[in-house]
Amino acid sequence: xxxxxxxxxxRKEIYKYEAPLALFSMNWSNRPDKKFRLALGSFIEEYAxxxxxxxxxEATSEFKTLVTFDxxxxxxxIMWIPDEGSAHPDILATSGxxxxxxxxxxxxxxxxxxxECLLNxxxxxxxxxxxxxxxxxxxxxxxxxxxxxDTTCTIWNLETKQVIGKHSAALTGHVRTQLIAHDKEVYDxxxxxxxSGRDIFASVGADGSVRLFDLRHLEHSTIIYEDSAHNxxxxxxxxxxxxxxxxxxxxxxxxxxxxxxxxxxTPVATLKNHRACxxxxxxxxxxxxxxxxAADDHQALIWDVGQxxxxxxxxxxxxxxxxxxxQVQWASSQPDWIAICYNNCLEILRV
Length: 351
Prior knowledge:
- The N and C termini lie close together (about 5 Å).
- The protein is built from no helices and 29 strands.
- It is mainly beta.
- It is globular and about 55 Å long.
- It has a single domain (about 20-285), classed as 7 Propeller (Methylamine Dehydrogenase, Chain H).
- It has strands at about 1-5, 15-20, 25-30, 35-40, 50-55, 60-70, 75-80, 90-95, 100-105, 110-120, 130-135, 145-150, 150-160, 170-180, 185-190, 200-205, 210-215, 220-225, 235-240, 245-250, 255-260, 270, 280-285, 290-295, 300-305, 315-320, 325-330, 335-340, 345-350.
- A hairpin with a 3-residue loop joins strand 8 (about 90-95) and strand 9 (about 100-105).
- The strands form 7 sheets. Strands 1-26-25-24-23 form a 5-stranded antiparallel beta sheet, with no helix packed on it. It has a 4-stranded antiparallel beta sheet with strand order 2-29-28-27, with no helix packed on it.
C-alpha cells in the first residue's frame, strides 16, 4: 500500500494469485504453521463452483494451489476454524445452500480435503433457504452462527465424535437455537467478545437494522441502528480489540458506518472517501483504531479512527487494484498482511 497523501512512496510487498474462475469469498488460515495459506471460493452463476486452497511459497515468492475441490453454488462465505493453538482438527466451513464443514489433511506433502458434514436446519423439506453468511465463534469454536434469506439466524453446535479404534474424529452438528432475527432477509451475522465472548452476536439485514442478541436471553433483541430510509445493510464486523464498535455498510453506498453499541441510534463515524459502493470491511486484528475498506472503485483503504467521534476526513493508506475489489481480509496471525480479491485475482499486501 502507498501513503494516501503521497508524501512518501514506499515500496511494499505484494503477492498475486490468479485463479481459473472469478473469486468472491476468501479467508486466511489462523494456524501459525500454515503461514500465507488462504481458502478462496469461486463465483460463477451456476451449480459447479470451486474452492481453492493456496499457499505462498516464500522461497519462490509464488502462490501454489494446494488443492481444489468442487462446491455446489458459490460460497457466500468461507472460514477456517479460529484455532491459533491448533487444538482442533484443521477444518474449514463454507456457506451457500447449506453450511458445510470440510476437513483438510496432509500426507506425503499432498493436501486433501473431504466433506465432514452438511448442516441443514430444515429437515421437513427438500428445499433450503440459501445462507447469506456465517460466523465462527472465536472464544468457543464449537459454535457457528448462520444467517439466511428466510429471516432467521441459526446457532449450530459442532461436536467431535471420537471413533473407537481410529485416530480420526467424526464431526457432526446440531441446532442449538434458531430465531427469526429480522423482518426481511438476514445478510450477515457476527459474534462479539463482549462478556464471556460466546453469547453475544449481531446481525444485519434487508430491513436496514443492526440487531444485537444474547444467547442467554433470546426473547429480547436490541436494535442498535436503523437506516433512516430502511435501505438494506449488507455486512457487519465487530472491532477485534474493542467490541463496543461495529462497522456496517448500506447496499449501493460508498460510505462505511461505524456504530458504538453503548450509544445506539446514531453512527459514531462515517467514512466517506470511496467513490463507488463498498463491498467489504476488516478491522485490524492487533489495533482498535484501524479498519480497512474495499470497494468497486478498485481501492482498498486503511483508516485511523482513533479520533472518533471527531470527523475522519481521509484514509492513511490506499491501494489501487486492477479491478473492483469485492473482498478484504486482515490476517489475524500475521497482522501486517491484508488480502483482497478482484475479478479472478487474489493479492496479499504488506501494510
